[in-house]
Structure formats: structure tokens, C-alpha cells
Amino acid sequence: MDIAQKRVAAWVERGDANAPLNLSRLRLDVLPELPAEIQKLDVSHNDLVALGALPRDLRILDVSHNPIRNLAGLPPGIQYIVYSAGQLEHETLPAGARSVEIV
């Protein structure tokens, strides 16, 4: 089991859907399977070029410091997004995103 999978397993074991899942600084180029109930996800400082399908309940997402250029397809309930200055080709974010932080 790699580090990302271990972090996901530890998050599930805690049983707190409000706790953030930290998958930052793992050199990920693809995300592991994520729990459906996750609400806060930090995948900053990785090598992600795409996010794939994210859990529907996700509310807070940090994708800063990744080569990802597009955030299309984010869950409709996303409220807070963190990304790096100049990271996105088009800064079109979901209508529900109430807060954006550019780092």
C-alpha cells in the first residue's frame, strides 16, 4: 500500500467526514480512489494534470502547485478552491464556489 492509500485508509478509520484528507506533497500524478463522504481535500504540491471524478460531497479543495490547467467537472457543491497564480488556462469556476484563494 502506498502512502496516499495509507492516508486515505487512516482518514476512513477516523470516521470524521469533516476532517481534511491531506494528500499533499506525495508526487501524485493520479488520485487514489477517494471516500464518497469526503468534504475537504488537499492535493497541493503534486504532479496532477487532471483530477478525475471527485466525491459529490466535496466542499473544500486545494489544487495549488500542480500542473493541472483546468478545473472543469468539479462537484456542484464545491465552496472553496485554492490554486496557484497562473495555474489555470481558464479561470471559470463552479457557480457555487463562494471563495477562491490564489497562492
Topology:
Elements lengths: L2 H12 L6 E2 L17 E3 L17 E3 L17 E4 L15 E4 L1
Parallel strand pairs: 1-2, 2-3, 3-4, 4-5
Question: How would you describe this structure to a colleague?
Answer:
By secondary structure, the chain is of the alpha/beta class. The chain has a single domain, classed as Alpha-Beta Horseshoe (Leucine-rich repeat, LRR (right-handed beta-alpha superhelix)), CATH 3.80.10. 12% of the residues lie in helices and 16% in strands. It has 1 helix and 5 strands, in the order αβββββ. Strands 1-2-3-4-5 form a 5-stranded parallel β-sheet.
The proportion of residues forming helix, as a percent range, comes to 10-25%
Number of domains: 1
* Computed CA radius of gyration, to the nearest angstrom: 13 Å
- Please identify, by name, the CATH architecture: Alpha-Beta Horseshoe
CATH topology: Leucine-rich repeat, LRR (right-handed beta-alpha superhelix)
Give the beta-strand count. Answer: 5
Please give a handful of descriptors for the protein shown.
single chain, 16% strand, alpha/beta, five-stranded parallel sheet, globular, 103 residues, Leucine-rich repeat, LRR (right-handed beta-alpha superhelix)
